[in-house]
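Need tokens for this chain, all 434 residues.
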Amino acid sequence: MLRLFASLYFLAFLLVFQGSSIVERLAIHIYEDEIIKDMKKDFYGFQILLENLQSKIDEKAFKELLLYISDNTNVPTEIRALDAWDLDDGKQQLQQVGDIYIESISEDILYTRLNHNQVVKIGPIQTIPSVLKLSAALQFAPYLLTGITILIWVSWQQYKILKLSLATQKFSEGKLSTRAQMGILSVPNLSKAFNTMAERIQRLFLSHKHLTNAVSHELRSPITRMRFQLELLDRHLGKLQLAPQDQHKNTTFLKGLSDNLDGMDKLVDEMLGYAKMERSELLATPKEIDITAWLTQQKETLLTEVSKALTIATPEGNRYAVFDDELMARLLRNLVTNADRYAKSLIIIELDYENDHVSLSVSDDGIGIPQDKRQAVLEPFFRVDPSRTDSTGGHGLGLAIVTQIVRCHNGKIDIQSSSLGGAKVTVRWPLQLS
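Here are the structure tokens for all 434 residues:
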């Protein structure tokens, strides 16, 4: 707020100060003749008095009178011979007795000729110190009032924006019923736009949630029934006296059906997991863990799930990082199993530290991911292989789930080409999670 106030006040100060100065100079330039004529009339009575006094008293008394006026009034006066004044162009305007030459309009300095040889300088008009301080205070009072007004206005706007910011923060934390306050305490158009957006997002969220629940109930139930019926069919066929070749065909068909049901089960699990993360129900419980030892434990589990060679490269010694071990284990499993589908023979897990961040990457020696598809593969249900053949497997949710877990750790994900010739997926997150 202070930065906004300072910038706005500085701009207003420049506009008022410079603007008034420019307007004043412009007015003097346009109306110079009228101003000079007015000043001459202001001092014309003073000139008449001096001319009459000079003719009535001697020169010494007249000079003493001028000195007295100069010392005891705010109108300094001084008399000299015409040639004693350094007037330049002013001498041409003081050719005759009674002529007046204006030297400075802003300072009220003028010269008047009393006789054929003497010229009196009048001004600049002065002000006693106490009144001068009061005048200065009155001069800067508008700037002070302007500053106070701007400060109040900026504080009021900041307060309204802060309330909208708090509503936005609550909404981002998953409290989708939060709405921006309307009325005098709001920024009307912005609050209205926020509420409209919030309504749409909440409807989309509820629709998404209902769809997920439908998938959970409507798909799981028939899959379970189909699996039960498949087992009954398998038992029934086992009781029949079939030829060996027919028995083999039946076994193959049943296995294919069972595998398809397993795939559907896995798809439902992945969809529910991803939907749960999308609904901000993913709550990380990070803690400080020896990540080197943790990777060693994960390798033992991963070796049972992959068909390619798996190695881990870590810095020497024990290294610690802050993360949720269950979520990060799922992240690593998704990356490794995804690499296993495309790798030819080798998968490498690398751990590195970069300043205040920890970096975990998985590389393979497969076909890699094209440059133009590296961002798209992070989206749900996207697969590099558009044919969706069984050879590559997966449903396009693995990296999307990885992205959600990385986001939960305030990290980033990056996809590059690996030195092995395939893809290298790197996740980075801060050592200390806020």
